[in-house]
Amino acid sequence: MTRIASRRGALARRSGDPEALPATLRRVSAWLRTHWSPVTSGQALLVVAGLLTSATSPLLRLTADDRLATVLAAGGLLALAVLSFLVPWTRLPRATTLGFPLIVWTSLAVVGLTTHGLTSVYTGLYALCFAYLGLHHRPGLGAAFAPFVIACYVAAFGGWSAQLLPRLLIAITVWLLLAELLSAMLRRQRALTEELRRAAHIDPLTAVPNRRDLDLRLTSTRVGDTIVVCDLDDFKQLNDRLGHAEGDRVLADFGRLLRTCLRGEDYAARFGGEEFVLVLTGTEVGAAERLLARLAQRWSLLRPDVTFSAGAATCRADRTTAETLVAADDCLYQAKAAGRDRAVCEPVDVSMIGAGLRY
Questions:
Q1: How far apart are the C-alpha atoms of 290 and 226, rounded to whole Å?
Q2: N or C: which end of the chain has fewer CB within 10 A?
Q3: Is residue 6 part of a domain?
Q4: pLDDT, tens digit, for every residue of 90-131?
């Protein structure tokens, strides 16, 4: 009983507060969506372009007409940035955010057409627009917009000239490379992030989620889900008798059994050592018993020399997920005490769970 009590405390600590972690994850996810979305970056693009135009114009020797043109252009960009906050972006397709760089390119063309020699001062803003495309839109989109950008660029310089050709070739090449390099770097970063996420949440030996991922999954359990704790019987003796390499193969086989026998909405994770935890979605105890019987039958065909014991408990409205996990673990110890190679399920008061259970 001392061992069970100690284990109960450890299980409760591992599962953590079932409400705190999801709230934290939701806040982090919301912050990332807000601060790194195409909409927010596009709004920042308009603001930066407007502020740079207005801030640099006093540093230039401008005529009254040129100064008025730059003020109007800067004011227009800032006004459009403010108006963009009123647009219901969530209801619009992602392609609508392409309007942000189009607005900046068009404004630069207008400034070039209405002033005298100011176009070269603001050509750096073209690069910002291509950077936006590379960060938030699919690869190759910069090349698709190249004809429009070239037209804006030529118009801003007062029309085509032989002297403009080398400048244009260098500029468009640099802009396209910038967009593609940023896009490639972002794709690589996402691939590495997914690889790291998988490494952090998947047990490499059994290819099922690890305890860290299990802690996250347990926070999303609902009333009516059944939690099962499985433990390979006499696993230490197996390691001592056949060696750790054979023990690893047994664990890998058990992980493969769980991956192939559970439903898509069910979940299995390695809890530690030779223990595994299953979360059976919307499953009553009788159905969990039938599932465990099928697992035992298939396991006996795969590994007739190794058995496993299991304990199961169903999530109820009157207790936490941590308490349900402890109850399942207590049932596991009852199965061990009764001779191993069996499953013990906690009796259930259906009135505490509700309707809608299935398997």
A1: 13
A2: N
A3: no
A4: 999 999 999 999 999 999 998 888 887 677 788 889 999 999
Tell me if the pTM is above 0.90. no
> What is the structure's pLDDT at 32?
47
Is the pLDDT assigned to residue 328 strictly greater than 50?
A: yes
CA distance 105 to 129: 8
Where a domain ends, among 200, 225, 254?
200
Find tokens 């068009």 and name the residue.
Answer: 106
Total domains in the fold of the chain:
2
Domain assignment present for 24? no
CA distances (Å), origin 239, targets 126, 208, 234: 65, 21, 9
Q: CB-based contacts of 254: which residues, under 8 Å, 6+ apart?
A: 206, 230, 232, 276, 299, 303, 308
Q: Using pLDDT thresholds of 50, 70 and 90, give the confidence band for residue 196.
A: confident
Q: What is the CA radius of gyration of the chain?
A: 31
Measured between alpha carbons, how far is 293 from 274 in angstroms, rounded to an integer? Answer: 19
Residue 328: give the domain boundaries. 207-352
Task: Please state, in angstroms and rounded to a whole number, the distance separating the CA atoms of residues 273 and 287.
Answer: 27
Q: Is the pLDDT of residue 358 over 60?
A: no
Measured CA to CA, the distance from residue 294 to residue 260 in angstroms comes to: 12
- Which tokens belong to 30? 């919301």
When mean pLDDT is compared across 231-240, 274-283, 302-311, 345-354, the lowest value belongs to 345-354
Determine, yes or no, domain membership for 2: no
Cα gap 314→282, rounded to integer Å:
9
